[in-house]
Amino acid sequence: MKQWLVVPLLAVFALCGIAQQKPIYTTALNGESWRGGEIGIKRAYVGGFLDASELHRVQLREVQKISKEASDYVEGFEKNNPDISGVKIDTIVEGVDRFYEDYRNRKIHAAYALRIVSLELTGHASAEVEAETLKLRRLSVTE
């Protein structure tokens, strides 16, 4: 009978210990966290992003073969998400760093910052880049 009493008491003590720990706050990788990041972490993020983008493009090429509608979608994706896999990672990191120098961009997630940098690096008009940036600022307002 005593062992049945010990188990619930241990569970209560364990829960009390967990409740006293400091909370762990996680945030999205936006400009606030990017600016404090080490260069190695930034390079790894950009490298991973580029790898994932290439895998997505490989899959899209297969989808493109299915129909005209699928092909139109892929063309729209390519236009709005230019391929920057041939650009040096340090150049891309530098672009994202520069993007986040503007305090108004710091709530924008790093994946979207990379999209803006890719538009700049592939020669899109500055008016188009600015319009996309303004849209992302409006969408990224939090708290």
Secondary-structure element series: HHHHHHH
Radius of gyration: 22 Å
Residue fraction in strands: under 5%
**Shape label:** globular
What is the average of the pLDDT values? 82
- Tally the helices: 7
Count the strands? 0
Biggest sheet details: none
Percentage of residues assigned to helices? over 70%
Q: In terms of structural class, how would the helical and strand content be classed? A: mainly alpha
Distance between the termini: 52 Å
Low-confidence segments, ≥5 residues, pLDDT <50? 1-26
Molecular structure report:
- The protein is an all-alpha fold and 143 residues long.
- Helices cover 71% and strands 0% of the residues.
- It is built from seven helices and no strands.
- Helix 3 (39-64) packs across helix 5 (89-101).
- The radius of gyration is 22 Å and the shape is globular.
Layout of helices and strands:
Layout: H1 2-19, H2 31-35, H3 39-64, H4 68-80, H5 89-101, H6 110-121, H7 126-139
Report a brief summary of the structure.
The protein is an all-alpha fold and 143 residues long.
